Amino acid sequence: MTTLRARQKNDRRKRIVAEAKTLFRRDGYDKTTIENIAEAAGVSGVTVHNYYGTKAGVLLALVIENDALLIDKLEKSLPRDANDIVELTLHFARGVMDHAIAHLDKQIWRQVIAAVTVEANSRLSKAYFQLDHQLAYVLVQRLEGMQKAGRLPVDVDVEHLGKALFHLQNARFIQFISSDDRTEDEIETRLRNDLTALLSAGGRRT
Amino acid sequence: MTTLRARQKNDRRKRIVAEAKTLFRRDGYDKTTIENIAEAAGVSGVTVHNYYGTKAGVLLALVIENDALLIDKLEKSLPRDANDIVELTLHFARGVMDHAIAHLDKQIWRQVIAAVTVEANSRLSKAYFQLDHQLAYVLVQRLEGMQKAGRLPVDVDVEHLGKALFHLQNARFIQFISSDDRTEDEIETRLRNDLTALLSAGGRRT
DNA sequence: CAAAATTTTTTATTGAATAAAATTTTTCGC
DNA sequence: GCGAAAAATTTTATTCAATAAAAAATTTTG
């Protein structure tokens, strides 16, 4: 049995997040005030604070919703028969960037990254990192597939490899959003350079 | 000829940054107010704003000062005769973490990362990224040395490799400061795992 | 239906950030 | 050196995020 109280709370949460997304997209993060969001959602400003702690908290909540979709999307779109690590990772990186830009602009993504860093121990940040982890695992799974198909040396630890690739991709993603005029192509090139350099540096296989 | 005005301005800058460092370290970032800093430095709060824009701006200014020292330190301490990439990078990472912790605590470093992300286009953030770039180049130089000494395949692009290694190290550094109880050893292990996985995944050299 | 429990709203305060006006200090030509 | 002009700081005022405590409203439960 869901009590009335629980349902109302849920409704308010939904309204707050939905209205926040609309306002953030329309007016930008800075120009949207907590009061604006509260008014649009039909609650008081303090209630927004009670629910999400900070303005960035509201932002994180909506990003987390969207990112859950990204995982599904990547799980479907990431090729299972990739020939090499580079192409796999670049495909992954494209998926992440496309998805990000489709939902929020760079200025707002910078706020997201800042928020999960400063409030790294908050409930919402942990949820965010949890999703990052799942995202990295999509990559790990594909690498396992490649290893089984003999396209990757058997002595490679695919879990470590997947996480490393994810980190690299993430670093470049942050670079992508950190400047308004850095293009996806530019970032793709850099990531490709990272990967080819690293992979070619291993050398001397027996 | 340095005018009196220029000298006074310089003095004020120095006082603000020095007092801010003392206060941030003693009371923490959040509990230190701009007014506290201003009072300690003998100026008005608005002057601090005029000089550095934001509280985070003051923090960045002092971090930039310290990071210049880090570059010198690493340039000296990073071994020129490293046998492999892994040991070189781990040494580098240690240097960065040790230096960071020696100057400010993790909570404050989180503010630094957040600040350079949100205000990615500000003067101070650009200066910060510039130092990051120089830092990465210390690594690049060592790699060049290794390549010349025949400890690295000649077809490896050391500039790309150095930047990639730096990014990876940086990602792990951010992870290091993101939780108060993550140790340097723990991070070293993770970075080692990243590197060995990536380097072993390259394979099939002719 | 009424008391108890829960939640939201109201009210108030602190501090960052920003802008404009007022004041002080330095500079520079004479 | 003096005084006007220029430059910088301080004062004053405002908006908004964040937080806390008290008050009010609503739901739950016996």
UniProtKB/TrEMBL annotation, chains A, B:
DNA-binding region residue numbers: 33-52
Keywords on record: DNA-binding, Transcription, Transcription regulation
Gene Ontology MF terms: DNA-binding transcription factor activity; transcription cis-regulatory region binding
Signal peptide, first to last residue: none
Domain of life: Bacteria
Annotated HTH tetR-type domain residues: 10-70
Coiled coil regions, renumbered to chain: none
Annotated protein name in UniProt: Transcriptional regulator, TetR family
